[in-house]
Amino acid sequence: MTPSSPPPPPALDDTASGGAFAWYTTLGAKGRKAFKGAFLGYALDSYDFWVLPLGLVAIAATFALNPAETGLLATTTLVFSAFGGILAGVLADRIGRSRTLMVTVVTYAVFTALCGVAQNYELLLVFRALQGLGFGGEWAAGAILVAEYAQARHRGRAVAMIQSSWAVGWGVAVLASTLVFSLAPQDVAWRLLFFTGALPALLVIYVRRHVTDAPAAGLSRERAPRASILTIFGPGLARRTFFASLLATGVQGGYYTLATWVPTYLKTERDLSVIGTGGYLAFLITGAFCGYLTGGHFTDKIGRKNTFALFAVLSGALILLYTQLPATANAYVLFLGFPLGFCSSAIFSGFGAYLAELYPAHIRGTGQGFTYNVGRGIGAFFPTAIGFLATTFSVGGAMVFGAMAYGIALLALLGLPETRASELT
């Protein structure tokens, strides 16, 4: 190598820095505590989200809801989660990542439990909206918290592991739902399921005692001028903010189509019982967990944008297959759940690292919270649109609309840079 030759790019193999678990060991003692707090927070966040889709059929029967009203419950949660995520992003830059994490956990836990006492549809809608504020905010705080502790070469995998906790919470929610609906009549069971959503509030005790922000994040808050949300639309950032929001819209529009309507689709159009539905969801959830883990490796190996593009194409194609197979093909639908869960979850693995890398430290929370959650808020209208379409078409037929969301994600990538192995400044 001549003196004028550029240095080689950083190696992306694991052998030089601790093996397959280097993403965890290199976090340091404080980083590992932050990882545990964020992992549990997002798993419990997932649990409190999933109790609604898993109880939708029973809730619809209790309050005599039509498909459009049923879909509005999910959309309201997601729209308000967008506001919660944006607010949490700003708070993360103002009061710190760990403090914001505690605020969001208490919010989603309290209002999930209150959903269980709702005496009418309107009150349930209000409680679910307020639950969405905490639900949307938790990811914004937890993902940044871990991203700032992680080394650049391992950041994709470290934050993807946080994302994988979504599948853990989903799986626990399915088990709880199967148990509760087996033991109690459905008009009582869905309320009991919501009551269990209060348990995540206990996590605050751990976060309060053990979790602190990365030193660089605290230093940035002290030295950098206090930024407003308008800063992310300033010179050099407005384009990133627009296309990152569009990317999040496409990915989440497709995902929340599945999250909201698959349980109903399996029960009403595949004629499965609650226990039978649990078996189908087991394949979907197992695939999701594997997808989150594998997606993290893809983002570090082939880049953030290539990973988004690959799994957007596969997810859209698999939604079409999953929903359009004939009623006699339930066995194929069962096994298709694994690749569908894998691809629709693997695409999320890069978000935490990628959005953190798009913005400087003093507005990282604001940028990440805004783009991800604006995408969530707009993407939330996909479940409602499917609810309206289902009154004319079948639920499975309407879900084809969700596959179109992944095309939006592909278009968004054209306006975004690649950030693999970037150092967080």
Brief overview, please?
The chain has 19 helices and no strands. The chain is mainly α. Residues 1-16 have low confidence and may be disordered.
Layout: helices, strands, pairs:
Blueprint: H1 22-25, H2 28-63, H3 67-94, H4 97-115, H5 121-147, H6 155-183, H7 186-195, H8 203-210, H9 215-223, H10 238-268, H11 274-301, H12 304-324, H13 330-346, H14 351-358, H15 364-379, H16 381-390, H17 395-398, H18 400-403, H19 405-412
Helix pairs in contact: 2-3, 2-4, 2-5, 2-6, 2-7, 2-8, 2-10, 3-4, 3-5, 3-15, 3-16, 4-5, 4-8, 5-6, 5-15, 6-7, 6-11, 6-14, 10-15, 10-16, 10-19, 11-12, 11-13, 12-13, 12-19, 14-15
Description:
The protein has 425 residues and is mainly alpha-helical. It is built from 19 helices and no strands. Helix 11 packs antiparallel against helix 12 (304-324) and helix 14 packs across helix 15 (364-379). The chain is globular, with a radius of gyration of 21 Å. It starts with 21 loop residues before the first helix and ends in a 13-residue tail after the last helix.
The CATH superfamily title: MFS general substrate transporter like domains
And the CATH topology?
Growth Hormone, Chain: A
Shape: globular
**Total individual domains:** 1
What percent of residues adopt helix (DSSP H or I)? Answer: over 70%
CATH architecture: Up-down Bundle
* Number of helical segments with 4 or more residues: 19
* Total E-strand runs: 0
Poorly predicted parts: 1-16
Q: Give the class from helix and strand content and strand pairing.
A: mainly alpha
User: What's the multimeric state?
Assistant: single chain
| SSE string, helices as H and strands as E | HHHHHHHHHHHHHHHHHHH
Largest beta sheet, briefly? none
